[in-house]
Amino acid sequence: MRRSFALLLIPLASCATLSRTTGTESPPPSFVQTTAELRATRLVEVREGLTRPDAMKLVADALGQRYIVEVVDPNAGFTMTAWRAGTSRAGVPNLRYRTRLTARFLGADWRRLQLRGEANWARGDEWDIGYDAAQLDTASRELHERLSPKP
Is residue 67 in a domain? Predict the structure, then answer.
C-alpha cells in the first residue's frame, strides 16, 4: 500500500515542480522557434537497390537507438517517435520542453526520406512551437550514414 501511494505522488511532484518555475527560464539553445516547416525538415537521399522493408528497418532501428519509436507504417513509409521530455541540469525530466521526429519516404520509388523535427517549449499556459536544431541535425546525419549512397 505504501509503495502504491509513493508512486501516486511522483506525478504530483512533477506538476508541482513545473508550476513553481519562475518564468525566467529559457528553452535550450538548440530550440528554434518557427512555424516554417521547411526549416524543420531535412531530406536524405536513399541509395539504389535498398528494398522498402530494408529501408523501413534502417529508419526504425536508427531512430530507435536514441528515441522511442511510437508509430511505424511500412505501407505509407512513415515512422514517428514519441514525444520526449528534455532534461534539466539536475538530470530530471523538464516537462516544459519536448521533442519528436517524423520520417516519411517520398515518391513512388522511395529514393528520398523527409525527416521533420518538432519541439515545444511551455511558456506559461501556452507552447512555443519550433524544432530542436541539434536533434534534427544529429538524426539527419545518422540516417544519411545508413541510407545514402556510399562514396
Answer: yes
Cβ atoms of residues 104 and 34 within 8 Å? no
Helices assigned H by DSSP within the chain: 2-19, 52-64, 133-147
Instruction: Domain of residue 130: give its range.
Output: 30-147
Q: For 73, list phi and psi in degrees, rounded to 5.
A: -125, 95
Q: E strands, 17-149, where?
A: 31-33, 41-45, 69-73, 78-81, 84-87, 93-106, 112-123, 126-132
Whether the pTM exceeds 0.85: the reply is: no
Q: Give the total number of structural domains in the chain.
A: 1
72-108 tens-digit pLDDT: 999 999 999 999 998 777 888 889 999 999 999 999 9
Which amino acid is it at 106? L
How far apart CA 117 and CA 85 sit, in angstroms, is: 14
